[in-house]
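Many introductory courses stop at the sequence. We go one step further.
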Amino acid sequence: MSDIYLGDSIETGTPNSDIILENGDLKLTSDVSKAEGIRQDVIATLSTFAGEYFLDDSQNYGVPYIQEIFRQKPISYSKTQSIISEAILGVSGVASIEQMQLESSTTTRDMLISFTAITIDGQTITANVEV
């Protein structure tokens, strides 16, 4: 399946959600690689707060940032890591997580998630996601 390819910031490698045009045509993830489509699915999942997507009746899409992570009383790093890992591994096409780093601030309630994962085809995907 192909999705519209969304670019990354050249400076940081962080997704910026800009639609890419090549010679006047939309660039699709299939134009890049199958792994790029999976990478964009992971980024979309990590960028969505649980309950935010109005068409998700199950309330299972996204990450429970407000409900569990960015609470007044912070949860442990290992619990946060477990929640984020579960979200990444829940994306179709992701086989394993090779590396993950979380940087968060309890005062500003934001987080930088850096990960490297392996797809079911053995390809490596990497991204930095700010929430």
